[in-house]
Specification:
Blueprint (H helix, E strand, L loop, with lengths): L13 H15 L2 H11 L4 H8 L19 H13 L6 H16 L2 H13 L4 E4 L15 E5 L2 E12 L6 E9 L11 E8 L5 E5 L10 E11 L11 H37 L1 E2 L2 E2 L4 H29 L7 E2 L7 E2 L15 H27 L11 H12 L4 H12 L7
Parallel strand pairs: 1-4, 2-4
Antiparallel strand pairs: 2-3, 3-7, 4-5, 6-7, 8-9, 10-11
Helix pairs in contact: 1-4, 4-7, 5-6, 5-7, 7-8, 7-9, 8-9, 9-10, 9-11
Amino acid sequence: MAAAHDLAQYAEPAEHAELRATVGRIAAKFGGAYYAARAQAGQSCDELWQALAEPGFIGVNIPAEYGGGGGGVTELAIVCEETAAQGCPLLLLLVSSAISGEVLARYGTQEQRGRWLPGIADGTGKVVFAITEPDAGSNTHRLATTARQDGDGWVLSGTKYYISGVDEAAGILVAAKAVPATQAPGLDAGQLALFLLPADAPGLTARHLPVDAMLPERQFTLHFDDIRLGPDALVGGDLGGLAQVFHGLNPERITAAAVCVGIARYALDKAAAYARTRTVWDAPIGSHQGVAHPLAKAKIETELAALMTAKAAWQHDHGQPAVLQTPGDAGPGTVLQTPSDVGPGSAGPGVAETANMAKYAAAEAAIAAVDQAIQTHGGNGLSSEFGLVPLWGLARLLRIAPVNREMVLNYVAQHSLGLPRSY
């Protein structure tokens, strides 16, 4: 007979439970009404950010030598989930702490880590991420932003689109095609690289991009007008941008999933409380299966998404491969940019698979939970008093980005199931 499973492996460590409780208490002091008011006004949640930064939770994943908590994406995902579970999801945790923090801690030069990580860790120096472009979509091969080599430095030119939190940032991590001085410019020239520049760099224009979703974080279009960068702006001092990008994008997907799980928990708590107390025809509405069953289904889907999110965070923190690799002609350890680069017989996907699955499952669970919470409240679900509509907007956004659900399905079909490429 096979040995019984050790159920202790599913128990959360005491330090993680304590982290959840502490972050939850801090965020609860602000709550859903605070977030909804900020979202409706388009104002950042500075007070909550600072309250989380003071005990070290904004930089919980940053190495201790740079003022961080020395934890990993597992701990950061807990912070993301618990703030959202109190009605206060913070989008810039995904960007500054997850993407920029993880990339710089792993690949930054000593100088870059010393300059930028302390500010990320204590919350005073957010570093946002700029990869999206108007015409590139999910195809990073089509990035048009270039950094042309000029002497020992670079000249950055191009446009980025839907970049979050630029008005709150000290620095910007930019994905661009690095074009050596000896190579002719063109759409296919250069290879992906990451560059760091101050948010107030001369030649950078940031224009507010209005969106109808109610969010505290503002979106921007960025124009880089031949910005001259020194050699120290190139992350890691080399052109290893593909590995660097995915070392940031997988944590972004994991923390996005954690935010979605928290949003779903918050919405379900609100809906269940309302359904227990709202009485129509002498019975609580929660006693009717038409109300109870959709909430129960959303609860199940939320718990499943939480498990996949925890698995993906564990894989990232324990060094599972970040992206697919191909054997043979591509050479050993060749890092691939997108699912479309990979043919039959590629190696296993590692954390890329679980991060994508977690983000997909959690976004679907969050939308279902918030939508059913609104439905449970009836007309009250649309009132400002109950604060559910801003959460729906963020959950709907996270179904699109980072990485839309269709690209996740493409990835799973091709790499998890071995089906022919569909695009």
